[in-house]
């Protein structure tokens, strides 16, 4: 298990970190990700990503390379069209109701998620509703194949590679998958959230 401070990876800005994620994702054939409070990066719109990354730059106080880091995040999304890569993304309903950027940014992001529900055969997006039962502690995390788990913290990221750590992450992800809704039911939650961001 290793820990890397955000500062150790962002001395010159956030773009270097984004480029490193692209390299990691290119070597992974199955990516599972959960985020309880933000839309997952690989399905973010450009404006949503800009708002998230601007906030990260602001709180960390690192050099402002916002245009470059947003471009890098958008470039990462090309991985979604690669076969045989598969992606299973779970997003907490809370992420759809909080405002990132502004109401217009949120409407565009939610509409993009609705479009993504059925857009690619290798991408499955599920929504975990606010009223689901608590079954396990669930910070944001990514599982890369079955070889590593990346867990985000306030100050950095933990990368776990021990088989027992990976196993508990996979069990947790499976619990969340069982609670998530997909297809029509996910569209209902997304449409309901869309209404909360009306002008």
UniProtKB/TrEMBL annotation:
| The protein, known as | DUF5753 domain-containing protein
Q: Which residues form the DUF5753 domain?
A: 20-192
Organism of origin: Nocardia mangyaensis
């Amino acid at each position: 298990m290793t820990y890397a401070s955000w500062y150790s990876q962002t001395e010159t800005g956030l773009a270097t970190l984004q480029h490193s994620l692209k390299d990691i994702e290119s070597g992974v054939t199955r990516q599972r990700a959960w985020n309880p409070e933000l839309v997952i990066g690989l399905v973010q719109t450009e404006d949503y990503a800009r708002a998230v990354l601007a906030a990260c730059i602001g709180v960390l106080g690192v050099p402002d390379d916002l245009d470059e880091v947003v471009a890098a995040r958008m470039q990462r999304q090309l991985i979604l069209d690669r076969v045989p890569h598969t992606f299973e993304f779970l997003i907490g309903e809370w992420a759809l109701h909080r405002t990132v950027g502004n109401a217009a940014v949120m409407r565009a992001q939610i509409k993009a998620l609705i479009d993504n529900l059925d857009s690619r055969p290798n991408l499955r997006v599920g929504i975990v509703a606010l009223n689901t039962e608590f079954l396990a502690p669930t910070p944001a995390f990514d599982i890369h194949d079955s070889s590593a788990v990346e867990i985000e913290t306030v100050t950095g990221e933990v990368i776990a590679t021990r088989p027992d750590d990976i196993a508990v992450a996979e069990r947790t992800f499976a619990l969340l998958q069982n609670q998530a809704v997909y297809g029509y039911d996910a569209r209902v939650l997304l449409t309901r959230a869309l209404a909360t961001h009306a002008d």
